[in-house]
Amino acid sequence: MDLSSDTAVLRDLNVRAWRLHLATPGVLATVPLLRGVWGAALRDGSQGQYREVFEGGEAGVPRYLMRPAPHEAEPAPAVEFLIFGRSDPDAEAALWAAWDEAERRGLGPERRPFRITAAVPLAWDETPLGPARVQPGFALAPLPWPAGSIAAGSQIDIPAPLRLLRQGRLIDSPTPADLALAALRRISGLLGPAADPLWEQRSAWLEAARAVPHRTWRGRRLDLVRYSGSQHREVELRGVVGSLDLPDGPGPLAPLLAAAQWLHLGKGTVMGLGQVRILALDADEPHR
What we know:
Elements: E1 14-23, H1 31-45, H2 47-54, E2 64-68, E3 78-84, H3 89-105, E4 115-121, E5 138-139, E6 154-162, E7 165-166, E8 169-170, H4 176-191, H5 196-200, H6 202-210, E9 218-221, E10 224-228, E11 233-237, E12 240-246, H7 254-263, E13 277-280
Antiparallel strand pairs: 1-3, 1-4, 1-5, 2-3, 6-12, 6-13, 7-8, 9-12, 10-11
Helix pairs in contact: 1-2, 1-3, 4-6, 4-7
């Protein structure tokens, strides 16, 4: 069965991504810390946008995520801020007004003010563009395969804890089928009914994913602990990090996995968990 037509719906999933370079004197700026102060400022400044973007509206699927910028991103520190959905001038103004207010409110116990020294839009291939708060973003289809030829060996790298559950238990050795199902869920959550035809074909997608040649998952457990303001307690976030080699490439899963680079997979995506990176597979690397 040709599944490629199903992923045309990804043309309706728009991403606007920025790399935020920060000046945070006296404070170690982390994604949870920045997310907390920005979210509080957004809630106080625009209840409507807070419900829609931060809480995810009626569907309960947040329309944003934050993640650490790559180590090579300069000047440091920097985080990446992603918004899903079509651009709306009023919504954009509210989101950036919340960042301005967050800067004034400050970070850490002493509420030290910080500054966004540059907001740099990112292209579909993560190339930094000229600094700007307003940008059109890009659709998640069609996206070229980041590792070159689809038929060439690729590595799916998971650098931030991936939290996929099966019957309430953490999947500690994810397979292509696990990643494909997680991507279908993520796309369906963000697009709603528009993605129903894609979701209804999940059995065919899983069959295709199980046929993709792959090596054994190489990774380890990585559990994080964060304070939950809504639950008023520390919460343990159990996950795995590692890599999955696809020696013959992703096959029909290419559109799903390419989109997953921006969407992230599993639970905790708003904090940058479940990040997916696609790398070329070193042909000289021994099979383990």
